[in-house]
Amino acid sequence: MINVAIVGASGYTGLELIKILINHPKFNITYIANSEGGVNVTDLHPSLDGVLDMDVQKANANEISKVADLAFLALPHKASMGFAKQLLALEIKVVDLSADYRLQLDTYEKHYCPHEDKENLKHSVYGLPEFYNGLIPHAKLVANPGCYPTATLLALVPFVPYIDPKSNIFIDAKSGVSGAGKKLSETTHFVNVNENIFAYNPFGHRHAPEIEEKILELTDIKANINFVPHLIPVNRGMLVSIYATLEDVCDAKQVLKDFYADDKFVRIKDEPVTIKDTSGTNYCDIFVEQNGNSIFISSSIDNLLRGASTQAVVNANLMCEYEEDLGISKIAYVP
Amino acid sequence: MINVAIVGASGYTGLELIKILINHPKFNITYIANSEGGVNVTDLHPSLDGVLDMDVQKANANEISKVADLAFLALPHKASMGFAKQLLALEIKVVDLSADYRLQLDTYEKHYCPHEDKENLKHSVYGLPEFYNGLIPHAKLVANPGCYPTATLLALVPFVPYIDPKSNIFIDAKSGVSGAGKKLSETTHFVNVNENIFAYNPFGHRHAPEIEEKILELTDIKANINFVPHLIPVNRGMLVSIYATLEDVCDAKQVLKDFYADDKFVRIKDEPVTIKDTSGTNYCDIFVEQNGNSIFISSSIDNLLRGASTQAVVNANLMCEYEEDLGISKIAYVP
Amino acid sequence: MINVAIVGASGYTGLELIKILINHPKFNITYIANSEGGVNVTDLHPSLDGVLDMDVQKANANEISKVADLAFLALPHKASMGFAKQLLALEIKVVDLSADYRLQLDTYEKHYCPHEDKENLKHSVYGLPEFYNGLIPHAKLVANPGCYPTATLLALVPFVPYIDPKSNIFIDAKSGVSGAGKKLSETTHFVNVNENIFAYNPFGHRHAPEIEEKILELTDIKANINFVPHLIPVNRGMLVSIYATLEDVCDAKQVLKDFYADDKFVRIKDEPVTIKDTSGTNYCDIFVEQNGNSIFISSSIDNLLRGASTQAVVNANLMCEYEEDLGISKIAYVP
Amino acid sequence: MINVAIVGASGYTGLELIKILINHPKFNITYIANSEGGVNVTDLHPSLDGVLDMDVQKANANEISKVADLAFLALPHKASMGFAKQLLALEIKVVDLSADYRLQLDTYEKHYCPHEDKENLKHSVYGLPEFYNGLIPHAKLVANPGCYPTATLLALVPFVPYIDPKSNIFIDAKSGVSGAGKKLSETTHFVNVNENIFAYNPFGHRHAPEIEEKILELTDIKANINFVPHLIPVNRGMLVSIYATLEDVCDAKQVLKDFYADDKFVRIKDEPVTIKDTSGTNYCDIFVEQNGNSIFISSSIDNLLRGASTQAVVNANLMCEYEEDLGISKIAYVP
Fold first, then answer.
1. What was the pLDDT predicted at A325?
2. What is residue D246's DSSP assignment?
3. Same domain, yes or no, for A155 and A293?
4. CA–CA distance, D108 with B108 (Å, rounded to integer)
């Protein structure tokens, strides 16, 4: 058994980490923290009543180093790098769910803020297991991808070599409201979202440079990414619809099947994918259709799980040399 | 006052026609029919209790000719052309909400079935008022556009001259469930739709050739249309997200403003459009954003109103030389 | 034409007042205000773009007295009585949508706060037209009922004389989220409400004493009211389920039909009522079923319209000696 | 390990049984059937792709007797008793999720149909573990309770001795749409349910006699049950609001705490219960509030789990002398 800490337990991804790790056969939760401490986990998450009775601490790296060997950080951007730096100095392995270690320095500083832990940034590994599984097992610090990049890269990367490099790639993404987090805002008010749908931050979302950078890293191709997210009136789930123009003929479905032949958590589907079939799981479902030189790729993930917390635990599994699917749910919430 | 008939009163668009025409200052409903007859409108639509007390007839063209000068047909494809033919022979003006008179003969027969009223098809006018308002006033037969083509053409046509003709145009459309009609199906079962989203008929929907044909008619340009509709868990509303590659630089927002300077039912918005702001109205809201040579155009309509019934009444207004907005709601249901 | 002011235009009921009054044949909106002013109504409510172009003022009673003869106050409790007092001193008629003038002094002060306009409170008329239509036409100040009392009293009052006075009356009410207003709270966060239902303030809601007091006024019977509201995941609509024990045998449906024989806005239904059939209207639909000496009465209203804004305009119609249904919508939003 | 069969795998409760039993440490699924057979489970339930690859058989009792020692029947009423009879003759233990063995003969025949397996009916045990845990371990046939009776009895039985026996007990129940099953109907059409709520079968639902009979069995008191179910626009979850009049003073919360002191799957809550907190689990959450001699009891369950499939597996655990919570989820789907 490996002792683990969860830092940032108040939000949705923190709750999901708790829910996964409670039943994990090899990870043992020894420390749960948020920015304030002084409550029980059931105060933060009443549904855990009867399931987990544990104090929530005010996050403290030294305390963590006494009781855990690995920490999951579900903290806001910027707060995370300050805390990760302390943990790494204490030789605690870190899976960071924020954006702080996902990007190269210049990309990060352009889209977020000055970086405060450049040294560790150099050695962080991007935690998309299908693409970085050679590096993750040796990493001390894994940067868990954003939800949009996860769903997009898994669908798009296999086709990048076939796409006309001069053409535009368009990504129309649809996210459930839990992706916006627990904080109160006009955008998350029930009456504003229910019976509604709209784009937000078109061409301006910070996940777009993350997608572009990773495609370049993985394929050596500079793709023309145009990313438009939409908010949909569901609690959880993410559907990403990608539109591109092919340069080379390909049997698109076969491309996917070959690419993911050895991967347990990607399913290639014959019918358009639904968010219901992946909700509650770590699966990414992918469907593809062609029309002349046009291609439509549709991927579905659970934004809080494959887009955050189960993927974080998969990364931890790999970092600790366990099977990647150890303790990871494959059973959807459907219906 | 002009006496009008509504044929096909059982479905959602039939109900919307009744709701609009009850309060219309110049149209007087004298005849309501469905395929069976023998009931009251309140049996079909209990919400009309206290509002309209009228028998529903078994549809009969001769009876209509005795009591009405204009008929709205909210019938299924194929059934509509048989009935319209009879009405036109009796000199009744027709606004047809089906697909039967929207397309040129060869396009229609390729995507639907053999046409049974080729003569009237030649003279039908496509009822998108912003583009065909010169022809509609003189028409005996107006073919009301589909909901997807309405939202798509209004957003896309102004930009067709600027788009790289060799590039692909991608249309990611999202429709509320009322667009699938009242009939029972797996797709409309609450549990399958709620907390879900998915594409259907990708690149295969019959509204795509309607869009292509009308763009060619209107701009003389053969556009490469790639159309993918999605079902979203809302009752009504349609959001269409269009992605294209520009050949010529343009100030996209100004293009829209100039194009629709004289139109009452198109609103150019500074923020991404929402379906909530058009739900209950005949408005089409349009937003546009650029990213290098990429363009994102987002339009919102009420699929049952601008996508069907209010647009039908606007067409009838024009056919009868009334103001186009006579009796047409501009006030959204929001919240 | 009578000039009217709307004070408190930012919230949902303010928006609904604007939507109704724009098309009212006899009321002319001359003044719209909120607590800040300095914006256009379309800034507050983007869906009014193209519909109404009017500045929003910082609320000022003297300014209102120059341009309007009647004011609708959609203000928070307590704020309302301060403002109404000024308007009444200036001889402006007032329809107040807050709780400030609904209750007798002692009831009000027990459940809300010290009253600051006791003089006008004495002369205010409770604006439930079916019960107080003799008084409303002569009133200078009408206190518009709460949404829960409206739906409850219309369903319950006809049966009070038949109910065992020693037994308990139980009211299980279900309200859409717009009833909680626009302000941000845990309770209105989409993720907390969607796919959820729960009671709140059981036996403790301030609408319970309003119901008790009005039953006593109307029937001279002290009823044992037990009121439990629930929040349901819909935008608008209210269903009230009332359970009681009869002392005297009655033909319950006939009781309702006789009671409301002359009322335009109450519909007695043969099937259990739905919120969909009243949403968008001023109707109250009522259904009743008996089981031995048990009775179940179910009523449905639109919480923002019959429960607030259309009822306010009906009251204004009566105060100005117009027909009660002048300019009031009877057509539901369905589907 | 004990081999088990699931008969009736097409519906929602069949799917839930599969999802639970896949991960159960002691039960091994050896046989899955529906009325047709000839498909894979992933054809019935695409979300099981990658999770379970198993043929679905046409249900046959002899085949089951070769491969399983216990069978779960998720069949329609009437079909179930025919099949259970065969299995019991072959010495297969049965957990029946239908109504066929829940009621005494006369109650059953009054509300359902003539009974075709009277012999086994005599020996069936009602599978509500908190109340019948003395009998379940020795049973060959357990009749799994209905969802409404489960949520109602757990909330109500502790208070029956305190309730005025001459007074009426009112049960206002709210169920998610999955309770209506997979079959297509007006009632399950998305557009009819979404943004709606209504009562159905008021005072006429067949779960009312089940509730009355079990209260009499358990407390020897004939309670006056008045049951009104409502349909709410959520996929899963059930909230039951019970209203009653107390004869004897009691500390209601303490009554609950004492009654359920030893039960793992009942949680007594300080705040009104929500369906979100039990969704995905076998928990029944209960909240109680008093107002003079009035009492309000609110209970929440997952209608498909505590109201069907996890409760069935708890019963199977007890029949096989395992811990009742073996393999049973306590972790809610929230958010």
1. 98
2. B
3. yes
4. 58
pLDDT at C327: 97
**Residues in chain C closer than 8 A to D243 (CB atoms):** 168, 170, 172, 226, 228, 243
Interchain contact B195–C (C-beta under 8 A): yes
pLDDT in tens, C292-324: 999 999 999 999 999 999 999 999 999 999 999
Domain assignment present for B329: no
User: Could you tell me how far CA D313 lies from the centroid of its own chain?
Assistant: 11
Same domain assignment for residues C21 and C140: yes
A63 and A48 in one domain? yes
Strand C93-96 and strand C141-143: the pairing is parallel
Q: Look at residue C331 and tell me if it is in a domain.
A: no
Q: Hey, are the CB atoms on A184 and C184 less than 8 Å from each other?
A: yes
Both B162 and B116 in one domain: the answer is no
- The answer to whether B127 and B142 are in contact (CB under 8 A) is yes
The answer, for C190 touching chain A at a CB cutoff of 8 Å, is yes
Is D330 a domain residue? no
pLDDT classification of C166: cutoffs 50, 70, 90: very high
C168 and C266 part of one domain: yes
Residue pair D90/D53 in contact (Cβ under 8 Å)? The answer is no
Give catalytic status of residue C147 as yes or no: yes
- Rounded-to-integer distance, Cα C150 and Cα C303, Å: 9
Q: In which domain, by residue range, is C40 found?
A: 2-144+308-319
| Nearest residue, CB atoms, B331 vs list C51, C276, C334 | C51
Residue type, A96: D
Using the Cα atoms of residue A272, residue A277, residue A280 and residue A282 in order, give the sign of their dihedral. Answer: negative
**Which of B203, B192, B183, B178 lies closest to B279 in space, CA to CA?**
B178
Q: pLDDT by residue (tens digit) across D297-319?
A: 999 999 999 999 999 999 999 99
Respond yes or no on whether ipTM tops 0.90. yes
Q: Which of C222, C168, C295 is nearest to D244 (CA)?
A: C168
Q: What does pTM read for this prediction?
A: 0.98
Same domain for D163 and D287? Answer: yes
**Start-to-end C-alpha separation, chain D:** 34
Q: What angle do CA C256, C258, C259 make, to 5 degrees?
A: 65
- A interface test, pick of B196, B234, B275 with most A CB neighbours within 10 Å: B196
Say if D256 falls within a structural domain. yes
Q: Can you give the pLDDT at residue A57?
A: 98
The CATH number given to whatever domain includes residue C59 is 3.40.50.720
C267/B19 CB distance under 8 A: no
In sequence order, what DSSP letters do the residues of C166-196 get, joined into one string? TS-EEEEEEE-GGGG-SS--GGGBHHHHTT-
